[in-house]
Write a sequence for this structure.
């Protein structure tokens, strides 16, 4: 079984692009199982089940959605194996741009919206820079020149990645995405490791502190001037 | 060297086979794309821009010199054979005209010296002058359109040029077309304007998302096109007068005959 982890900013078209790609896999008699990770709400499972793909939702609630996805990967693999799937597809709504949920053997797909401006690739961090594949959506809404500049910016951040220009409405580029999924490595839980460490997020806020005043905060803390320290026992 | 491109028909919006199964466009030809709004003109242009290989909604296939282009040819802007002037000129880029053009020149492997040439050319097509220091976001519709025409002509200097509805741009459309349709190129123009449509060598008629008919421009139409051109120039002259605050007195419509 192969594992595909799809990350991307909200509204970038992850689900739309995936649905076209999964349809193309169905046409080749390949089975996928989808897990959609979101924070508070999603109804994307209905869209996936419409094309007959077994789907599960995971809502991370108080936990960071990427941490939540990583913590639950084992269960997801088990579930997808029970479904006798050829592909486990994890779609995650990573929001802080600091995490990259990709593991070493998965196919890491970053879906990024071309209308978000040509500086976006420089801002989004490891979920783009450690991806195997950057899927650029909504390119039909901007000019060719802007599209080409956007592409150049992605390659500045991740020179090794393959770029696919896709359209979630027409399905353009999605067959290409399916082809790349076929080339992914087999997943092996014991050897699976993250490509990029998750951020240091062990402060009192993580466990529920709501007071703003500095004196109440403990843990690994970074000041606005860049000075970082550990405060506590 | 691109000698010709071939469009192999796919399916229309209803999933029926397109009536036109094959269109061949040779070097030096100008082809119009006509049809009501929503008939699939822009989609046809998009298929050619991406050199579609049955991977778009229409399932059309585009051949270059009778061969399938490689993935690299289709996607790497340095190798790109298609320049497109689209209707979408949003300029979401938060940067100056000069920075944008140098960045684009870099993408296309063109010299940074192009930047001045683009700005100068753009300023021949539009009213209020564009400056390199201007932020892209403050440009008017006409200015950004003129800038993109010049960008396509100078920086994206490609053998295939696709133009989507130049008439709505508020710029001098004939001059713009002349700038874009360089010698020996393959040019496709999406248009609602009979003046432009009859200037082409042939036109693809779109309906329901499919290529319905291929119409060759007749000698009579070419004659008519010349007349229409005169009317158009007359209208443009009037437009300039009104724009410049002049009062229109005598109009010699009979001179057009």
């Amino acid at each position: 079984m192969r594992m595909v982890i799809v990350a991307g900013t909200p509204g970038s078209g992850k689900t739309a692009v995936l649905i076209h790609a999964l349809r193309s896999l169905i046409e080749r008699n390949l089975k996928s199982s989808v897990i959609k990770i979101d924070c508070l709400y999603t109804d994307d499972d209905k869209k996936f089940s419409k094309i007959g793909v077994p789907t599960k939702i995971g809502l991370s609630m108080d936990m960071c959605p990427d941490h939540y996805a990583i913590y639950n990967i084992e269960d997801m693999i088990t579930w997808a194996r029970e479904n006798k799937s050829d592909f486990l597809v994890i779609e995650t709504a990573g929001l802080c741009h600091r995490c990259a949920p990709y593991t070493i053997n998965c196919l890491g797909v970053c879906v990024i919206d071309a209308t978000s401006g040509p500086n976006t690739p420089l801002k989004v961090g490891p979920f783009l820079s450690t991806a195997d594949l950057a899927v650029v959506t909504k390119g039909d809404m901007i000019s060719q020149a802007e599209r080409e500049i956007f592409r150049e910016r992605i390659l500045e951040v991740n020179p090794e990645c393959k770029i696919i220009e896709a359209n979630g409405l027409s399905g353009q580029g999605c067959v290409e995405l399916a082809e790349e999924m076929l080339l992914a490595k087999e997943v092996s839980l014991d050897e699976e490791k993250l490509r990029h460490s998750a951020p240091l997020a062990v402060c009192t806020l993580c466990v529920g502190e709501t007071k703003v005043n500095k004196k109440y905060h403990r843990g690994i803390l970074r000041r606005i001037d860049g000075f970082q320290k550990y405060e506590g026992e | 060297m691109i000698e010709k491109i071939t469009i192999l028909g796919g399916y229309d919006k209803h999933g029926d086979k397109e009536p036109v199964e094959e269109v061949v466009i040779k070097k030096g030809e100008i082809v119009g794309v006509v049809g009501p709004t929503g008939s699939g003109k822009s989609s046809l242009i998009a298929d050619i821009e991406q050199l579609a290989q049955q991977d778009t909604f229409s399932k059309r296939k585009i051949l270059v010199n009778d061969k399938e282009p490689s993935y690299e040819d289709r996607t790497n802007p340095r190798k790109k054979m298609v320049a497109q002037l689209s209707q979408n000129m949003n300029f979401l880029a938060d940067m100056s005209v000069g920075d944008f053009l140098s960045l684009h020149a870099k993408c296309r492997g063109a010299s940074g010296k192009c930047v001045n040439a683009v700005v100068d050319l753009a300023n021949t097509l539009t009213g209020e002058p564009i400056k390199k220091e201007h932020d892209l976001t403050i440009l008017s519709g006409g200015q950004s359109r003129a800038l993109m025409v010049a960008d396509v002509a100078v920086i994206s200097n490609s053998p295939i040029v696709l133009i989507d509805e130049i008439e709505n741009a508020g710029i001098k459309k004939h001059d713009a077309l002349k700038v874009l349709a360089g010698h020996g190129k393959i040019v496709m123009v999406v248009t609602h304007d009979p003046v432009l449509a009859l200037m082409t060598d042939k036109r693809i008629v779109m309906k329901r998302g499919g290529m319905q008919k291929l119409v060759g421009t007749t000698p009579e139409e070419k004659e008519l096109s010349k007349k229409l051109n005169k009317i158009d120039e007359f209208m443009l002259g009037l437009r300039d007068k009104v724009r410049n605050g002049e009062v229109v007195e005598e109009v010699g419509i009979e001179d057009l005959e």
Q: What stands out?
A: The mean pLDDT of chain A is 89. The first helix of chain A runs from residue 14 to 27. The interface with chain B takes residues 115-119, 140-146, 148-149, 151-152, 163, 165, 167, 170-176 of chain A (CB under 8 Å). Chain A has two domains: 2-182, 200-233.
